[in-house]
Amino acid sequence: MKAEVKWLGGRAFEGMPDSGHSVIMDSSPDFGGEDRGVRPMELMMLGMGGCTSIDVMNILEKSRQDVTACVAEISAERAETEPKVFVRMHVHFKVTGRGLDAQRVQRAISLSAEKYCSASIMLGKTAEITHDFELIEAD
């Protein structure tokens, strides 16, 4: 994997990975930015959320669960001193579908957290990461 991060002026940068899908990053105005894009640490949270969500959906599809929607709500707490790494993260999955099996959803989340999600496992080296879920019956 490779990526390029190009300065756009001020505290803004454009990130371009091999996939060709760019993202604009900037800092907050109180740190000299112009709020033109996502903060880099927010991007790390989103990356972890996307990684685990992809795993969970893949596992649920393979276990023939009738999922109609899946939302991962991520909250994080950072260290108070530099480097302000994540120290705690929580992922709350809202899984909507028809006749979903809670044990299969729990298993999918556990497999992602413990075996498949590279981002979660990497961030878990500095942060305590917890998960929970709720099932919502589709109309």
Briefly summarize what is shown.
The chain has 139 residues and is an alpha+beta fold. The chain is built from three helices and six strands.
Keywords:
139 residues; alpha+beta; GMP Synthetase, Chain A, domain 3; 2 domains; 3-stranded antiparallel beta sheet; 3 helices; 32% helix
Draw up the topology in text.
Layout: E1 3-9, E2 12-17, E3 23-25, H1 40-62, E4 66-78, E5 86-98, H2 102-116, H3 118-123, E6 128-137
Helix pairs in contact: 1-2
Provide an overview of this structure:
This protein has 139 residues and is of the alpha+beta class. It has 2 domains: 1-38; 40-137, GMP Synthetase, Chain A, domain 3 (2-Layer Sandwich), CATH 3.30.300. The chain has 3 helices and 6 strands. The strands form 2 sheets. It has a 3-stranded antiparallel beta sheet, with no helix packed on it. Strands 4-5-6 form a 3-stranded mixed beta sheet, with helices on one face. Helix 1 crosses helix 2. The chain is elongated.
Termini Cα gap: 42 Å
The CATH architecture name of the largest domain reads 2-Layer Sandwich
> In CATH, what is the class of the largest domain?
Alpha Beta
Beta-strand percentage?
Answer: 35-45%
- Order of strands, main sheet, comes to 1-2-3
Q: Oligomerization state of this entry?
A: single chain
Low-confidence stretches: none
Number of domains: 2
CATH topology of the largest domain: GMP Synthetase, Chain A, domain 3
What class, by secondary structure content? alpha+beta
Return the average pLDDT rounded to an integer.
97
Q: Let me know the largest β-sheet.
A: 3 strands, antiparallel
Q: What's the helical proportion of residues?
A: 25-40%
CATH superfamily of the largest domain: K homology (KH) domain
If you compute it from the alpha carbons, what radius of gyration comes out, rounded to the nearest whole angstrom?
17 Å
Report the count of strand segments: 6
| Basic shape | elongated
